[in-house]
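Here is one such protein, fold included:

. . .
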Amino acid sequence: MGFFDDLFGKRPYPAERKAEVEKMIADLIRIGQNEDYLSEHTGGLFNGQYRNIQAVEIGRRLDAIGGFELMEYAHKKVQHKVGANLGSHLSYAWADIGRWVP
């Protein structure tokens, strides 16, 4: 995904998945703003690896729809809204999903 793709709005997902992908990105932004993607404790919203369960599920779904390219696209959108620190938390929450490497 390059500069021109960002500029002209090329999306790494099928048109029929637009609403689903946009909702997942919005959900990821909300998670980052309200809960975080990582925790110091397990339980509740966080799995045994200290990762936000919903963020992990969204990452798996993004991977299923559009692979690494869609995950990268979503990560950039989310990081733009929540900042670099929380963006790195999301990256670590997605470790081992598809080809994603934090």
